[in-house]
Fold these 4 entries.
Entry 1:
Amino acid sequence: MAFFLETLLGGLMAGMLYSLVALGFVLIFKASGVFNFSQGAMVLFAALAMARFAEWIPEWFGFENKLLGNLLGFLAAAVCMFILAWLIERLVLRHLVNQEGVTLLMATLGITYFIDGLGQTIFGSAIYKIDIGMPKEPVFVLQNVFPGGLLVNKEDLISALVAAALVAALSLFFQKTSTGRALRAVADDHQAAQSVGIPLNTIWVIVWCVAGITALVAGMIWGSKLGVQFSLTTVALRALPVIILGGLTSVPGAIIGGLIIGVGEKLSEVYLGPMVGGGIEIWFAYVLALVFLLFRPQGLFGEKIIDRV
């Protein structure tokens, strides 16, 4: 029982990180109808910006406080993501309003490669480290309940809590603020939202900024765990099954989908992997996504598309 719970907790913590990346896809698609393939590149760019600014700023101002350097690096990276979001809306999306979906898709692919190249040009192409002080060693918990306790990785636990806090903050933002309600109105009907005075271009900038902040937090966490390297762009591929499972237009779906896939990957690898030689964790999410595409393409919480003739 203890081993099962350890595996379950590991899956839940991994699932929260998947949900964090998937949120960027969902937010942008809900507000603009754009499937943002550049989300993975945004995660990499944000992680590079934080890693390099956290290194550069103490050198520029002559102090050695690592915590202050990380904080200022995070703020500088956030400013970079805001500027990047504004430029994307101003230079690309504004000129592609009401275009075909494939046109918008190709635009985000172009943005992906541009961001990859821009990040390498500005910040370099080496592997960088983000050290935000998260403890790496595991800890035993619930020793009074289970013999020997449950082994939990502190870094994974803190990462999952940070991701959960950001998800909760975004949910409150969408539900309780006037800007959040405007975002939901734009997601429901662009033309109706414009007719009541909601500025569509401003909303798109806000959405891309919010997606940039989620990319920054995701990049900070993944960069702390794995190091900041260009393979971080593949994190977005891990989020694709999440949004297929949860629904492309559902914020709760991104959360639930991430948790289901995180838990499913861990449990299938541990309990079914030995029967087939392992490797289930690599393809489990994509097979599950394929099943949903065949039998419920809108996902668990997505809106069913009805074509009337």
Entry 2:
Amino acid sequence: MIRILCLHLAENRASYRYRVEQFLPYWKEYGIDMQTIRITSKSYPEKLSIALRCGEYDYVWLQRKPLTPLFTAIIARKSRLIYDYDDALYAVESYLKGKPKPTQPGSKQSIRRLNAVLKRSSIIFAGSEALASYSRRFNPANTFIIPTAYTKLPEPPSKSGPEVTIGWIGNTGNLYFLSMIDQAAASIQSRFPNVRFSVMSGKAPEGLQTKWEFVNWSKETEAAWLDSIDIGIMPLEDDEWSRGKCAFKLLQYMAHGKPVVASRVGANIDAVICGKSGFLASSEAEWESAFESLVSNSEQRLRMGQESLKHFLATYEREQVQKRMATILHDHFRQCRKDK
């Protein structure tokens, strides 16, 4: 049994829920025992105590948060370090105006800490090709692409009726990206009276031409909302921050059997089989064309939704992703024992 201690940010963070928590009930099936500790909100002595006890475990899994070079060095000496991340912490967030604070992605402190972690890691789980490419600059032999996973769901309910709902789900910071498709969405809304736009987030989008129906996000109502939409969307800027994203919104839509429309950026390109499970778009004209095609053809929506679900189950479903991680861990552990 491989023993792992996972140090993570917070239980309410999506990166923890989908890259750590959903796997916890199943690790023992793969010969792995994982314990978790929230590393944030701990005092310096508490963090030091945790770092010094890391030798009790075969691996320490650091989830997303790069620690100071000192703590990183202590952990790497005491145990084998796994670093798992799903955001371009080396880049400034697309929607941030001005210089990032020291704790924010893209700051000198964040980059210095991230690079130190990558250099000292025995295994790196990068959520996208862009993140893996960055990681390989510091640790090419031990970098693996592990997409964010989502749990298999019951068969999505069939929908009927003339109304078509285009949906977007995400945190309030990412509402920024809706402005990129505002003209296309507003045009569709004016041309097709049966189309509604729905957003599930912490607040409603502001300053847009498109009229978005706002649904307050909650863990309990998320699945029902995803079932209620007909088309899922993920607009992004083509910049360093967005290229590091892991297409998680798309996985949520795909797991619920929805056709998708997404910006032709980063991990979106792998998540969308363009013309088969949805459309990739690089301009407002392409977004409007994709919307029009799906809104006008219910059979195409159904067919593409089925392809979305099929692609999700083969590539991003929890069991598939966890099996890949377990294989990497056991292979690495066996090699370490041979090298002793």
Entry 3:
Amino acid sequence: MLRAHDPVAWFDEPDGNSGFWAVTRLDDLVAVHRDHRTFSSQVGGTELEELERDPEAREARRTMLETDPPEHTRIRKLVSRSFTRRAIEKWESTARALIAETIDGALAEGKVDFVDAVARRLPIQMISKLLGVPDRDAEELFHWADSVVYHADPDFSDVLYDKDDTDPYRLLPFRSPNSLKVFEYAQQLAAEKTRRPESDVVSMLAGSDDLTPREFQTFFLLLVIAGNETTRHSLSHGALALAEFPDQLHRLRENPNLTDTASEEVLRWACPQIHFRRTATGDTTLAGVPISAGDKVVTWYISANYDESAFTDPFTLDLGRDPNPHVTFGGGGPHICLGAWLARLEVRVFLDEVAKRIDRIHLVGKPERIRSNFINGLKYLPLELEAIN
């Protein structure tokens, strides 16, 4: 309804917050994200929480996401070479071996919680190798990271953002006390990499003089979360979609050359990021709607990826969809997802190995979603996997 009749719509908020403009069409979202001078990440941050009212918290919690160029460019450049398409392609054989082993293990079980058995494992293993996190530490580190970003879900966090008093943690990302555990681990790992540097991202960051200790800590947390979330939920939503559209799994198996378009369609369909926020730096207009300086402008990825004006039959999974201008990695501009090529690689090899190994996917229970207005994620997905004879 909003896309059709009120694509830039004002919403009031409770508890004295200012309200926000909801941007629901794809073209308008792209316009916002490509114009960082008019729609800033740095002024008020990327969450609905109004950190501009608390400058101390805004500065303490700032990551690369909450910066505009040239500051954003400076931080991003420190690691961008590790995430180029060419750099990521070198990891294909590693990713393929990991996902093949994981799928074979799930097939041996037959009925599995797909999130735990498959979707969670590959991205953790891959981003750990890129960052330089030892295998022995990965499980605990990502447990902490989950509790930080899923700060409203009691299955992950002991301190709930919207139910408990989180003011004592207002200087920490997502107001989560477990951020401190990630920060402490990051410093320990950096100290190890300083003594014995390797060809990984943390070694690069530890050897740089361009980050303050807090900038390093928040950057490390961002990489841990972002390098895991997009792929984990894309794999989970992708497997669920293949259960709901079995003809598309058959289509992929009969046409292996569809893998690239299939990967983009799964990324569109999954849309792990629900929204991001920007702040208007001056009076402006968007789609003919006047917006005042200081207004919160919230771009709804989960709507734009199903925009009827941009996609034919958007609520049908079409693994051959082309063109596919989805915004799962952002709408362009300086904040286009740093890990886009890593996520694409992981989704592509996942679909390759599924098509080689799995004949049918059956949903055998009710999926459970993560309690979040920020991440579109599944925390439990009961599936039965049938192997190809």
Entry 4:
Amino acid sequence: MVRPVPGAHLRPLAIGGVRLASPVVQAALSGYSDLPMRVLARRFGASYAICEVLLDTFVAVMGTNRKNLARVAVSDEEHPVGGQLMGANPDDFPPAAQRLVTAGFDVIDINFGCPVKKVLGRCRGGYLLSVPETALEIVARVRDAVPAGVPVTLKMRRGIDDSTESVDKFWAIFEGAFARGAAAITVHGRSVQQRYVGPSDWGFLADVKRAAGRRIVIGSGDLFSAEACVAMLEQTGVDGVSVARGAIGNPWIFRQTLALLAGEPAPPSPTLYEQRDVLREHFQLAEELHGEQLAGRTMRKFAIKYARLHPEYLAVRDAFVAVKVNADWQHVLDRFYAVDAPGRDPSADVDETEECA
């Protein structure tokens, strides 16, 4: 069971003029953090969530195709909500940022952190940490393009690699972005070269927050449990924590973290009935957004993450992989979630998901 952390406290977070009830937010997750995932995160206590990363060129010319519009769909219940952009050319960011504001996003976030090889090869994401001039031009162009009341934020890693040059470029972008109007910066404690191998460097996050002073820094990396979220806040002094891979298939992490921050015992891992109810809810939200056929395909990747909380993890995972339509989904629930029992804690599992996060 997750236990309260002595001295933990719950404090609000502000991103520009956007006030958040707590310092616990859900990160942008490529291929995952669509409307259904964000809505569930908010229902379980995330104070804010960010849409999956979107290419600037896609957003600017996406048209009215249902599948495309679903990627920028925003629910009334999830405000405030952030939209994240990724690209290479500063000229492409302003129209895309404006389109996201029109779609209903309250904050525009810029991705300078994605370590995926194909992204780096196209001079996007984490690659921009190697070219401060271009990165800062993007920040300035986005800030100028959106209304003054819409905060602009960015996601960074601690550099391309561990070289002195890389560290210098990190600080040039970090300080320059705030100087150009960024309201907050999320920093992941791994380098781009490191991808998801090895631990996130929380000592670096502490250094960043000390240097930032009262400017808002949100920490990211290795947040797979409520204890880890609270520990990052206490050990680094960051203003907030951005839960990424640890939230896929586990929206309960937000409820557990809020309990610890309030000095209370956190709820245990959800029972099978609690899991079943959320699995049904998630599929329904996905079906409303995408239609049944696409929802069935989309939900498989979520289901294999949800399965980690089930005592029969491997069997449940394999059953969900075969799901195509709602009837298949309900069949898995009827087979594996018909009798209530305690759930398992997935935080000790190794998550090998490699997405822009």
